[in-house]
Design brief:
6-stranded mixed sheet, two-stranded antiparallel ribbon, 8 strands, 15% strand
Length: 245
Amino acid sequence: MTIDLTTAGQTTGQTTGQTTGQTAGQTAGQTAGAVDVLLVDDHAVFVEALAIALSVQPELGTVTTALTPAEALLRAAEAAPDQPLLLVVDVRLGGGGPDDPGDGVDLVERLLASYPHARALVLTAHPRPDVVRRARAAGASGIVAKGTRLTEVVAALLTVAGGGEVAPPEPVGDPDSPGLSPREVEILQHVAQGADARGVARTLALSVHTVRDHLKSIRTKLGVHSQVDAVVAAHRLGLVELDVP
């Protein structure tokens, strides 16, 4: 697929295989001191479309793209040290190895530690509460669902670039909420990390009988019949985290 866009004598939107590392130049209407953008996503067509949409925003400067975490680190290193920078990073990236992590939140944390002048917005296909918490903890100022309309994504990016914050709306009176108590969530988090009832009891200084009663209550509230199913259901609701990217 080829997408062409010419701005200020430069062309962005090479073929999909050439998108990596390309930049979209400033248009004549872009303001001095505009914020540069580093867009990191392993879906080349999505990268091209979003780069085109961002390249015509007067508040934004050069839009640089990267398809992998390793390439993103290289592009960030090329940025001018005093130039404002907006990082736009997908949660799931095709990484490989300790120097090329496939987790976008880890990449955001690493980049913000190296470039404290930068701001970050995270894109995710599933804006679960646990994903939002991790992104916030990593320093992201915005989290946007990838299913959001392009115009709304651009608006969110401009908000973060301007110093604001963006987060998915929290459900009010969510009918899917199982109503687990803080203690039940704590116990289930330990189970998600591989502990059995006896292990949870030792860690939390509870009796095994008490832990088993809590686990029974958890299964009932979640409408499942096993601890594995309880962990899966709770993870989908964003109540517990799993040790996977």
